[in-house]
């Protein structure tokens, strides 16, 4: 399974970003996530926008993932096909950021660890897809 | 003397060898691999500064390293000589290993300047796991307040970051007018210098240590070339590293700064390969002979070497220097050609407050960049360099901080995001 991007259908509403934040918040509740949890979690999907074109982009979970190969701790690893970062092991060297051809790995967390799409544990449709009002993201 | 015969021999067992072992086994499921390592156990070398900084408990590597009955590692053993034509490696234990194919991946060793007092207790180099142990032992035994780091290159800065994390007072001494001269341009290193000073580091450029001074046999300080005296309880020598090739001087291999290899990572002697910090490859952009001692190129070279060792011809496209450091809250990233040698190169740059972006182009293609402050898209720029994508009108957008995948031609970016997918 993977998240597919259909830029023709994206209206740039950024609901995917909001639902990603909620999903990765401590409470899992939209109001609490945005009003009470500090620092607010970063969205792991980002909408890129230029003129009338937009699309949501998150980790592509590359088959030969340079972020995994170039990780000097092994924090960036693969579990059942999903590329994940183990924040306990991450030292924040940022080499994964240098390695990602899509530019979708961000700095985050207090230990300067990095933050990226985790496909929401691979269980069911991720909220960024589920709440997209126009099927600009699909999970198939 | 005991003698072993193996199909594949790996001399050194760090990142280049890990990937070579994997590539060999992908191509040759029956081939026996024997690796020889000076270390006592598997660890990740660049992690020693992060372990020193206490961001992690130790320099353990948690990633996948080929581990199966067809790979044997001789730990704590050092290769002392190679007879290339005879295909024999001699170990310090007296053993002889006769091989069909070998990979030399013995990494680099620190350059130790000939400074008076460099042998004093309290003066260290910092590139291996044993250096971490020695520094930690020293810190546990003696009161240390002032740390002096000699060398403003990559290792010097990473070590500096670690001592800052631990709360020591740090002075950084660099001979060149600029820090990280191999990685940054003048403007970029000014940003770095500012970040260091904001983090509380005393930065001294265009100067070096003339002698280390002791009190009671232990380091007490350093006399600089200008005559100034600096207090220091601990000093790190970080003026650079060089390929670990001394043991190969009589081997018969062609040596330059490192072991000279061709586009298959093969040395001047057929069947013997080299990869990682010890290998002298060609620069991806300029084609000049160069040693690019960074983790990502060790991975790539190790993979290519392994494939070729097992008989599949694979070409290495050349070494692309890239690196990233973060001092305080300021990340700095660079890649490729950052100080263009002449005006056939086009330079675009913008500085705004704490942020700086510089792009170097040649014939409409990106060949290098420096990013300070916002480095999130660094990997995309590295990709553009590797792909040699012609940027045309796109280049006007490079300086825009919103530059992303969306700036690329629609068909190209759609192709890029397709990928192979994830099995769930």
From TrEMBL, chain B:
Membrane-traversing stretches: none
Provide the NADH-rubredoxin oxidoreductase C-terminal domain boundaries: 321-388
Q: Report the cofactors.
A: FAD
Q: Is Hydrolase one of the keywords UniProt gives this record? A: no
Gene Ontology molecular function, alphabetical:
oxidoreductase activity
InterPro entries referenced in this protein's UniProt entry, alphabetically: FAD-bd_OxRdtase, FAD/NAD-bd_sf, FAD/NAD-binding_dom, FAD/NAD-linked_Rdtase_dimer_sf, Rubredoxin_C
- Record keywords, A-Z: FAD, Flavoprotein
Superkingdom assignment: Bacteria
Q: Which family does it belong to?
A: Belongs to the FAD-dependent oxidoreductase family.
Q: What is this protein called?
A: NAD(P)/FAD-dependent oxidoreductase
Q: What's the source species for this entry?
A: Candidatus Caldatribacterium saccharofermentans
């Amino acid at each position: 399974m993977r998240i597919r991007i259909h830029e023709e259908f994206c209206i740039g509403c950024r609901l995917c970003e909001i639902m990603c934040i909620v999903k990765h918040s401590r409470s899992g509740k939209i109001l609490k996530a945005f009003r009470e949890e500090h620092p607010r979690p970063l969205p792991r999907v980002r909408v890129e926008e230029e003129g009338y074109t937009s699309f949501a982009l998150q980790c592509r979970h590359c088959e030969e993932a340079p972020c995994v190969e170039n990780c000097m701790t092994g924090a960036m690893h693969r579990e059942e096909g999903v590329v994940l970062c183990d924040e306990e092991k991450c030292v924040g060297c940022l080499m994964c950021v240098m390695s990602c051809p899509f530019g979708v790995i961000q700095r985050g967390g207090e230990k300067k660890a990095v933050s990226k799409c985790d496909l929401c544990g691979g269980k069911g449709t991720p909220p960024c897809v589920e709440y997209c009002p126009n099927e600009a993201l699909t999970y198939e | 003397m005991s003698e072993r015969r193996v199909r594949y021999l790996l001399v050194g067992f760090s990142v280049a060898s890990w990937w070579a072992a994997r590539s060999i086994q992908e191509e040759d499921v029956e081939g026996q691999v024997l690796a020889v390592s000076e270390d006592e156990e598997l660890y990740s070398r660049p992690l020693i500064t992060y372990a020193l900084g206490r961001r992690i408990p130790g320099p353990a590597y948690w990633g996948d390293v080929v581990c199966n009955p067809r790979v044997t590692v001789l730990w704590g053993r050092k290769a002392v000589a190679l007879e290339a034509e005879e295909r024999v490696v001699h170990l310090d234990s007296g053993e002889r290993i006769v091989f069909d194919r070998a990979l030399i991946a013995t990494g680099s060793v620190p350059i130790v300047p000939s400074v008076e007092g460099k042998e004093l207790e309290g003066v260290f180099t910092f590139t291996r796991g044993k250096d971490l142990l020695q520094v930690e032992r020293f810190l546990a035994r003696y009161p240390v307040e002032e740390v002096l780091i000699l060398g403003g290159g990559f290792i010097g800065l990473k070590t500096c970051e670690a001592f800052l994390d631990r709360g020591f007072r740090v002075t950084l001494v660099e001979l060149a007018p600029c820090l990280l001269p191999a990685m940054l341009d003048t403007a970029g290193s000014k940003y770095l210098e500012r970040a260091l000073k904001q983090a509380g580091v005393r930065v001294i450029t265009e100067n070096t240590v003339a002698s280390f001074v002791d009190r009671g046999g232990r380091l007490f300080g350093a006399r600089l070339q200008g005559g100034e005296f600096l207090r220091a309880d601990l000093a790190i020598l970080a003026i650079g590293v060089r390929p670990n090739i001394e043991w190969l001087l009589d081997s018969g291999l062609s040596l330059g700064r490192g072991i000279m290899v061709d586009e298959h990572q093969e040395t001047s002697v057929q069947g013997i390969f080299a990869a990682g910090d010890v290998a002298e490859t060609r620069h991806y952009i300029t084609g000049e002979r160069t040693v690019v001692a960074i983790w990502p190129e060790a991975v790539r070279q190790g993979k290519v070497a392994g494939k070729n060792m097992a008989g599949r011809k694979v070409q290495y496209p050349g070494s692309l220097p890239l690196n990233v450091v973060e001092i305080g809250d300021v990340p700095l990233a660079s890649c490729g050609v950052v100080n263009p040698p002449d005006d056939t190169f086009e330079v675009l740059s913008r500085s705004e407050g704490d942020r700086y972006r510089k792009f170097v182009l040649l014939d409409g293609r990106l060949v290098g960049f420096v990013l300070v402050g916002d480095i999130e898209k660094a990997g995309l720029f590295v990709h553009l360099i590797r792909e040699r994508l012609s940027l045309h009108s796109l280049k006007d957008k490079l300086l825009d901080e919103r530059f992303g995948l969306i700036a690329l031609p629609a068909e190209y970016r759609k192709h890029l995001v397709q990928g192979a997918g994830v099995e769930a």
